[in-house]
Amino acid sequence: MKSRSDKLIPAAIILFSVVPVLGGALRLAELGGGAEITPDNARFFASPVPVVLHAVTVTVYSLLGAFQFAPGFRRRRPSWHRQSGRILVLCGLVGALSGLWMTVFYPKPADVGPLLTGIRLVFGTAWAVFLVLGFLAICRRDVRTHRAWMVRAFAIGLGAGTQAVLLGSWIAATGPLDQFTKAVLMLAAWVLNLAAAEWIIRRPASTRLTQGATR
Q1: 3 state SS of 141
Q2: Under 8 Å between Cβ of 20 and 63
Q3: Which of 48, 99, 129, 151 is the most buried (most CB within 10 A)?
């Protein structure tokens, strides 16, 4: 029998990924369907490859990565965990680097200022670096360090889900965002995700080992 955590953890991550995944799908449909070009989407039509790469790889990273956090599933299928992990590292790196490219080279919308640009550069770079550190750790067979870096990388990769919740709640409560408020809320989302990652990483080993033990 599958443990509860094998079902609940992936389901929670996938649910949290719905908004950014749908956003990426809508962007792809817009580009592929010949939608009207507006000031808001002109930059994507002018240079579609980075946004297509970002949308596809982040979707795979979010949905496939959700099952890496099912403890029983990992134990029962270690080869699947390793093979899918390689795909996730590749998708994460492409997602991070395409996001950095868009941050640097795409024209900035009116609600994106220097502060948010700097924040995106910091966290996009951290995402890529964490993935590389996690990969190097597993090459040394240092599973504990590998796990820690991959959890941190996943927390950054899922930042868009937390940002959608925070920004959506703020807009619903107070109205449109200015540059500073948007930057602060997006920073808060990444900080919250990393705080949750550190909590997961630093939990007592006995707590982690008992996850998924119920049969």
Answers
A1: coil
A2: no
A3: 99
Report the number of secondary-structure helices (H) and strands (E) in the chain: 10, 0
Residue 187's alpha-carbon distances to 16, 121, 160, 205, in angstroms, are 18, 11, 11, 30
Kindly report the pTM of this predicted structure.
Answer: 0.86
Q: Which one, of 86, 48, 80, lies nearest residue 67 by Cα?
A: 80
| Gap between the Cα atoms of 74 and 163, Å rounded | 29
Cα-based distances in Å from 40 to 27, 107, 140, 168, 190: 12, 10, 46, 18, 24
Rounded CA gap, 52 and 55, in Å? 5
Could you report the per-residue pLDDT of 94-124, keeping only the tens digit for each? Answer: 999 999 999 999 999 989 999 999 999 999 9
How much of the chain is helix, strand and coil, in % rounded to 5?
A: 80, 0, 20
